[in-house]
Write a sequence for this structure.
């Protein structure tokens, strides 16, 4: 389940709360930070986890390709 679907699900669950805030005079600039704050923290954690996890395999694949390209260029006439 992606971050977008989780956020849409949460917004749908909080639909009544958002409506009450709007009725009581809250502007969109007051409501957006309430919703965005939660997802920016989730996105930050996901980014911090994914960068090291994807970095090592990428380095390994580049090392293999570099070796293959070097061998390929040696054997070309």
């Amino acid at each position: 389940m992606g971050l977008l679907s989780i956020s849409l699900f949460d917004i749908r669950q909080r639909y009544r709360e958002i409506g009450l805030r709007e009725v009581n005079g809250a502007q969109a600039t007051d409501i957006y930070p309430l919703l965005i704050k939660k997802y920016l923290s989730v996105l930050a954690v996901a980014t911090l986890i994914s960068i090291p996890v994807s970095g090592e395999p990428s380095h390994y694949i580049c090392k293999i390709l570099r070796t293959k390209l070097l061998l390929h260029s040696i054997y070309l006439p």
